[in-house]
Design a protein that fits this description.
Elements lengths: L5 H32 L3 H11 L11 H8 L3 H13 L3 E5 L7 E5 L1 H26 L5 H9 L7
Antiparallel strand pairs: 1-2
Helix pairs in contact: 1-5, 2-5, 3-4, 5-6
């Protein structure tokens, strides 16, 4: 029989609880966004991240920054951008000061869809957190999520 380090067991259990909470929240939001707006969680996140860009220094995100923000590989992010571009929700254009750079912006149609989907996303998030808070193993994590004010820098 092998000895188990109690600290590592607790750490593993904490990680499992966090993973479970994330999965439940994401699945709940996914169902709501798909049903109401024909958007996946990843598509919504990408539109949201890109909608926050602005003109000027540092205003447009490079594809690596976008990939990090939506927690996807660069290739998966590029495929996602292409799908949303095909739907008319995003557009790409060359950087005016560096012809090697390509910017991606949310179109007016994409912004409208994002505005329509935001209340659905927020309500689904609240519902998922409320449901998870009823589980004694997840309730402490829910309290932590509810106290966070800003995204953790990558």
């Amino acid at each position: 029989m092998t000895a188990t380090n109690p600290a590592l067991t607790a750490l593993s259990q904490g990680w499992c609880a966090l993973s479970l909470l994330h999965g439940r929240i994401e699945a709940h939001i996914e169902r709501a966004l798909q049903a109401g707006h024909d958007l996946s969680v990843r598509e919504y996140s990408l539109l949201d991240v890109l909608s926050r860009q602005h003109e000027g220094d540092g205003g447009h995100l490079q594809m690596k920054q976008v990939a990090d923000a939506v927690v996807l590989s660069q290739s998966a992010t590029t495929r996602l951008v292409t799908r949303l571009e095909d739907r008319g929700l995003l557009e790409r254009y060359l950087c005016p000061t560096d012809r090697r750079g390509i910017y991606t912006n949310v179109t007016a149609v994409g912004l409208k869809l994002l505005d329509e989907a935001r209340p659905t996303n927020d309500a689904a998030l609240r519902e998922a957190l409320d449901e998870a808070a009823r589980n004694p193993d997840l309730a402490p994590l829910v309290r932590v999520v509810e106290t966070l004010k800003t995204p953790v820098p990558g």
